[in-house]
Amino acid sequence: ANRIKPSKMIKSCTVALADVNLSKNRYRDVIPFDENRVVLDPCKDYRPAAQGYINASFISASSSEECSHFIATQGPLPHTYEDFWEMVLQYRCPAIVMITRLVDNYMPIDRV
């Protein structure tokens, strides 16, 4: 298996590793690469240095017949709930699929 060298990963994840964005990452070793990260419109983030950061990546999966596009993201943290929903709205995500156990209740059942 090919492994990414840590030095290359650090260079490729500069936005995620910027001081202003570190608190937006649930885990320090699960971060998006700069080249395929989701970028939020700047109007929501009052800190230009944050560069529209959310811990999320675009993923393309193609078969012989079609190409599908997805966004993979971490479960939002309490201080990133707004960023999460902004991303869902900005990119018009038609579905949200959670593939981990429920840790934080960022989508209260009583409001659905």
TrEMBL record:
Query: What name does the UniProt record give this protein?
Result: Tyrosine-protein phosphatase domain-containing protein
List residues traversing the bilayer: none
Q: Name one GO molecular function term.
A: protein tyrosine phosphatase activity
Origin organism is Punica granatum (Pomegranate)
Q: Which residues form the Tyrosine-protein phosphatase domain?
A: 1-112
Q: Give the domain of life.
A: Eukaryota
- Name the Gene3D superfamilies for this protein: Protein tyrosine phosphatase superfamily (3.90.190.10)
Instruction: Please give the Pfam families that the UniProt record associates with this protein.
Output: Y_phosphatase
Per its UniProt record, what InterPro entries does this chain match?
Answer: Prot-tyrosine_phosphatase-like (IPR029021), Protein-Tyr_Phosphatase (IPR050348), PTP_cat (IPR000242)
